[in-house]
Specification:
The complex is a heterodimer of chains A (about 550) and B (about 170). Chain A has about 550 residues and is mainly beta. Chain A has helices spanning about 1-20, 185, 425, 435; strands spanning about 30-45, 60-70, 75-85, 95-110, 110-120, 130-135, 140, 140-150, 155-165, 170, 175-185, 195-210, 220-235, 235-245, 260-270, 275-285, 325-340, 350-365, 390-405, 410-420, 435-450, 455-465, 475-480, 485-495, 505-515, 520-530, 530-535, 540, 545-555. Chain A has a domain at about 350-365 and about 395-555. In chain A, strand 23 and strand 24 (about 485-495) form a beta hairpin. In chain A, about 40% of the residues are buried. With about 170 residues, chain B is an alpha/beta fold. Chain B contains 6 helices and 7 strands; from the N terminus they run αβββααβαβαββα. Chain B has helices spanning about 1-20, 65-75, 75-80, 100-105, 120-125, 155-165; strands at about 35, 40-45, 55-60, 85-90, 115, 135, 145-150. Chain B has a 7-stranded mixed sheet with strand order 2-1-5-4-3-6-7. The longest helix of chain B has 21 residues, at about 1-20. Chain B is globular and about 40 Å long. Residues about 20-25 of chain B have low confidence and may be disordered. The chains are: A mainly beta (about 550), B alpha/beta (about 170).
Chain lengths: ~550, ~170
Amino acid sequence: MKAIVRKSIGVLIAVLCITQYGHTQDLLPGLRVWGNFQVDAQYYMSDTLIDAPDVPEKIGMNAFANLNLAYENLTIGFRYESYQLPLQGFDSRFRGSGIPYRFASWTQDNLEITVGNFYDQYGNGLVLRSYVEPNLGLDNSLDGVRMLYRPVEGITLRTLIGDQRLYFDKGPGIVRGADAEANLNQLLPALAESPNQLTLGLSGVSKFQRDQDPLFNLPENVAAFAGRLNYSRGAFNINTEYAWKSQDPSAENRMIYKYGEALVMSASYSVSGFGLLLSGKRIDNMGFRSNRNAVANDLHINYLPAMTRQHVYSLTGMYPYATQPNGEMGALAELTFRLPRQSLLGGPYGTTIVVNTSVANSILREALNDTLPVGQPGTDGYTSAFFALGDEKYFQDFNVEINRRFTRNLRGSFTYMNLYYNQNVIEGKQLPDEDKIVKAHIFVADMTLRLPNRQSLRWELQHLATQQDKGSWAMALLEYNRAPHWFFALSNQYNYGNDDSDKRIHYFMVNAGYSQNANRFSLGWGRQRAGIVCIGGVCRVVPASYGFTLSVTSSF
Amino acid sequence: MTTLKKALFSFALLLLVVAAASGQGTRKLPEMTIKTLDGREFQTSSIANDGKPFVISFWATWCRPCLKELNAIAEIYDEWQEMGFKLVAIATDDARTRANILPMVNGRGWEYEFYYDENGDLRRAMGVNMVPHTFIVNGNGEIVSQHTSFADGMEWDMFEKLKKLLQE
C-alpha cells in the first residue's frame, strides 16, 4: 500500500515538474484537472419498532474523491476512499481509508496504455466487466496493465491483465483478457455507405487461481469466450452475444464441473413516436469470479444483466429481480408509443405510453444418471437442454406507464404494475411453498404542477396490494422545488397491511436539499425501511434505520 | 515512513490544487472514442456546434430525472434550435438497459444528438458520478458550467446561459 502511494505520488510530481519547467511563462497551459467528491453520512438513532440494528459508533460515513490530471496524451488520477464506519448495509471490510484506485494512461499513435487500476467491459459484459458503483459498494477494478490499439479505423483490439480489488485488498486470482471488435462499415470502404450497419466482436478471458483444495482436483486456469454481433438497418437493431465458460467449480455453483453458457439477444424496431423492443436470454452456470470461494458481490469478473425493467419508485422497486447466475431463462418486451398532441386520445399536449412485460424462469435440469442427484458436488451436476424451461417461475412483471401533460403547467405519470416474485430464489429465503411467492398489484400516480418563478410541486401516491410477505403498503410524497437551487420533500410509507398489527409502521422521511451548479447538499431525517437497493440488476440489502442523513456531492 | 508518506501526499495535493487553480479556463472536452447508437465509433473531439454554445447531458433510460430533463428541453427545443443551440445526449446505460436506448429515443420523438458511452470512459473522463449531469460548453468547446440533478424549470436556466454565452 505504502509503495503504491509513493509510486503514484512520484508520477504525479514528475508530471507536474515537467509541465512547470516546460511553461514558465504561462503556468501549465493545456493542463486539464478534474474530479469529484461524494460523502454520505448517517447518524443512527435507536428504533426497536423497525428492528434497526444498534450502531454503537452512532455515525457511519462513506466518502470518496476522484482527482485526475490530463496533459497532452497523458492522464493520471487516483481515488481516495474513506469509510469511517461503513454505512449500514455496506460490507464491514470497507472499514478504513486508502487509495484503492490510481492509474496512469497515455495514448500514442492509436495505442492507449493504462497501468495501475482500470475498468473495462467486453461486449455486454458476459465474460468481463469491471466497474464501480459506489452506491452499491461495488468496485471490481483490475490492477495491472491494459492496452488498447486501433490499427485502422473500425478495428479495436484490447488486452488486459490484472488482479481484482476486494475492499482494501486484492483477490487471489489473476485475470487475463483480450477482445477484438470490428465495425465493418468503418473498416471496409465498400460498405461505408451501406444501410446495413454491422459490428462484430470476439473476446476471451481467463483467470488463474491455485488449487489448494484437499478434496477436489480443481482447474487452476478457467477460460471463457464470447462472440457478439450488432446489426442495424434503418429502424431495426439486433444485438446478440453468446458466451461459454470452461469447468469452474465454485462456491457459487456448489462445486460442479459443468461448463457455463450464456446467450443474450435483443431486437428493436423504432421510428419517431413508436418503439418496440424484444429481448431474451438464457444463463446456465455462468458465475465467473477471480476467487472460486467468493460469495455475495465479491470479485465478479463478468456481469449477467437482469432482463427486467428497472423500476424507480419506492413501491414498484420494492421487490426487484436479481440475476440468477446458476441458471435462468428470461424474456422482455417493451412497447413505447406517443399519441400525438391535439388528437382525441393524445389530448392537447400529447401522451406517451410504455407497456412492458418480463419474465424469468428456471432452466430445466436433469440428473446425469439414476444414482446421482441433480447438482451433486464433484460431478458435472446436471444436463440441460438449451431451450428447455424448468418448472419454477422466478419473477414476472407486467406494467403500463402513461405520461400525459394535462395543461401548460400540470403533468402526470401513472403506472400500474402486476408482480410475481419468488422470495426463495431471489432472496434465498426458505419459506414454505404457499408463502414464497409475492403477488402484488402496484399503482403509482406522480404529478407535477409548475408554479411561477421556476417553482414546482410534485406529489406521488403509491399503493402496493399483496397478501404475502409484509402485506400491503401505501405511500405519499410531497416535494417542493425551486429551480435551480432548492428542494424540500416529505414522505411516508405505511405498512398498513402487515399481519402483525405491531408492525403496521409509518416510515416517514423529511428531506431538504440545495444545489449550486455541480455542488449538491441534502439532509434527511426519518425512518428507512429494510429493503434491497439495486442498480443494473446487482443488489445490496439495506437494513432498517432511523436517524439523520447528510449527502454532499461535488464535481469540478 | 508514515510521516514521509503523509508529507508527500499533502505535497501532491497542494500541487493538484495549484494545478487546478491555474488550469481554470482550459476545460476542453476530453478526447475519447464513444459510439453512435448504430454502433459506429465516434471521436468526442468531433463534438462541436459551428462555434455556438451547446449542452452535453449524461443520462440513462432508467433515470427518471434524466427523462424529465430531456422531455422538458424537448418542449422548448424549437426555440433552442432557432438560436442555433443543440443538446448532445450521452447514454450511460449498461448491458441491462442498453437495448432500451433506441426504442426510447425514437418512441419519445427526441431530436437530440445521441451517443453511447459503452465502457463509461467519457463519464470517468468528465467526472460524472450520477446522472443527470449536464455541462454547458461554449463556442470554443470549453466547459463553462455544469450541474447535477434536474428540477422543472431548469431547462430555461440552461437556455438563458446559452443565450448569454452567445452574446459574449
